[in-house]
Amino acid sequence: MSGVAIAKTDGWEPKIVAFCCNWCSYGGADSAGMGRFQQPASARIIRVMCSGRIDPLHVFNAFLEGADAVLVTGCHIGDCHYVSGNDKTKIKYKYLENVVRELGIEKERLQLNWISASEGEKFANFIRDVTAQIKKLGPSPLKPEGVV
Amino acid sequence: MSDIKGTDNKSAVPKDDEEKRVGVFVCECGVNIGGVVNTKAVAEYIGTLPGVKVTSVNKFTCSDSGQADIQSKIKEHKLNRVVVAACSPKTHEPTFRACIEEMGLNQYFLEFVNIRDHCSWIHMWEKEKATEKAKDLIRMGVERAKLLEPLQASEVPVTDKALVIGAGVAGMQSALDLADMGFHVYLVEKEPSIGGRMARFDKVFPTNDCSICILGPKMVEVARNKNIHIMSYSEVKAVDGYVGNFNVKIEHKPRYIDVAKCTGCAKCSEVCPVEVPYDFNEGLGTRKAIYVPFPQAVPLRALIDMDNCISCKACSKACESKAINYDMEPSYTDVNVGVIIGAVGFKTYDPEPRHDFGYGLYDNIITAMEFERLLNAAGPTGGHVVRPSDCKEPIRVGFVNCVGSRDKNTNIYCSGVCCMYTIKNAQLLKEKRPETDHTIMYIDIRTPFRGYEESYNRSRNLGVKFLRGRPVEVTEDPVTKNIKVRVEDTLTGEMRNLEFDLMVLATGIVPNEGIGQIQQLLKLSKAADGLLMEAHPKLKPVDTTIDGVFLAGCASGPKDIPYAVSQGSACAGRATIMLKNKKAITEGITAVVNPDVCVGCQVCLSMCPFQAIRMDEQGVKANVVKALCKGCGTCVAACPTGALEQSHFKNKQILAQVKNVFKFEEVAA
Fold first, then answer.
1. ipTM field
2. I want to staple A147 with a disulfide (CB 3.0 to 4.6 A). Which of A55, A66, A116, B462 is the partner?
3. CATH code, domain with A28
4. pTM (2 decimals)?
5. Among A52, A61, A119, whose Cβ lies nearest the Cβ of B637?
6. Is A58 part of a structural domain of the chain?
7. Nearest-by-Cβ selection for B634 from A37, A45, A52
8. pLDDT of residue B156
9. How far apart are the first and last CA of chain B?
10. Cα–Cα–Cα angle for B532, B570, B583, rounded to 5 degrees
11. Does B290 touch chain A (CB under 8 A)?
């Protein structure tokens, strides 16, 4: 069954790769769990110590492997556990965004968000919103045949 | 730095030829995971992955039997990598690291997969999808586990001194306990006197004993203790370093008084012609531009409020000890400490901007803190509660609870103390003047601790009325200036029109000014309520996510006095573990340079906020100073040649996870 064919069935769940920093957004995802904020089973979280560690390499690889969306998340600006790692993420993200657009990938498929460790509800809403947007778009055009 | 052991490059060299033997342990966490995720099916699927030698499902993997199961399987199957799929690594990773280390495995050979907080708890009604997701997450973990490399945690020496920020009752308790255990403590307080908020209360619930009478001796005890260095009227300006070795810059604001000469006689205040609202009395009454903060202040020394001083120099003439110096500049002290305790306190909610219940519009509506100062014998009225419009003593007094608490428009949390202090305030006035009539308008009355319910009963017996409802309309009688309130008694469903001579708002606890600055200096997290976050709400209530930094009192949520004092002691106890052992363990995760690939472009240098990367002596290759590296990996992502890698988060490890988010299914022809 090809990706597009799956999308046409109602139960299609996109696969979203979410990079989370250890201190804030990963904690936010934990808080979402603790608060039982229900969300679609679309996100697969990859933990890094700081959002500054997220390399464009990781993002491009995620798309090439078949991600329908990639999320870059970290601490709020000013709250970085490592002082300014997220400032660098922000700068890097701008370039990343441009390159991804050049490749013809819809803007909804790459998103940046700052989520603190206490913002469980925000995390859940974010996943819910992105999932709804991606469901409308369907599977990523870069998704290799046969990948689920 | 030579005494810092651990993490040398040699130990990070992987033995790639070794066969990877992975054991996967799936936890059901009772029904938390097991009730949603089909753990048996997950284990069965994971068992088919290459390299997985054994899978096991446990009711509680963190229990003794669960850990014994891991240990026996490590032995039986000669496992060299362990994957635990359970709750959050933020709470349980240390447990399982220790568990596998006992079996002779490097603790970094553990991979922790979160299938509870990130799966079963958030897909409670989608069991099949949750099961599929759990399979994905564990597959990602297994592939990452195979690539994990051994690391050594570092041991860092701990300076046996402590810094306590905030000298309220919680901070003072921390300082006293640490000092009594023999450690030197710097106690920094931004106000000119120690004592904090408690010094302003008239009496404290449920015993109704005089607040300053029990706090005053404690303040003196702090001042007398030889191990405590009080730095009042001072603020922390910079914090550098890490657990065991924090370098802190403290600013001493100019008092314009030589504290060594001043005797606190207050003759200067007598001659000062400037009168300004008295902040200690919540702005009621006045003080002079040169003043002693309050009669029990520690240190009992005057200071000049330069914003209001008119430079008439009358005080200088009156001062017999020649203590006044108008040219004083801020001064700074640098201290080196091993641990930091943040007891930065709270302030009360300000109803003025929103004019809650008419506050700020009508004279005869005051806050509970203002009421507290009016009740106090040392207050602006000598202990007579009078109403602001005509200075007459009120007969009918209304109290409104939950102002700035339990309200979607202000703060949703319960401040926890307002029910009790309102009950206490009504009792105190009723006892002073039995002819007074008191009505407390509440949502719920909350009296959870020892003696609290008894105090509530006592006020009922005294004749204080309790009305369940919040005022829906508050107006002022233009002639009498009485307060007219429309309120629904929600127990009877009846609409009531009441008239009070004075109305008191029970304002809640909100984050203190400057909490944001402290949060950033100490790199702490802030919760949704604006207060600081503890490491774990139940099991690590005074720890933070920063090693060596602890929190006491209202900085981490509303608390009453006994709770704040307990936390002060708890912080001292937690801090002592590090101070006494003279060492702390830090993570082995750092950046590592491959000198063969580094071209010396120095991009990484500008990425590092900790100055942990330096050029080698020849200035051609980057070099990571392990003791300074915090392991964020920002430099790694910026390195254009791939010479930098972050141990435990190497590109190949992250990419193994990325790749295994997906699986390949044969396309039917």
1. 0.94
2. A66
3. 3.40.50
4. 0.82
5. A52
6. yes
7. A52
8. 87
9. 64
10. 90
11. no
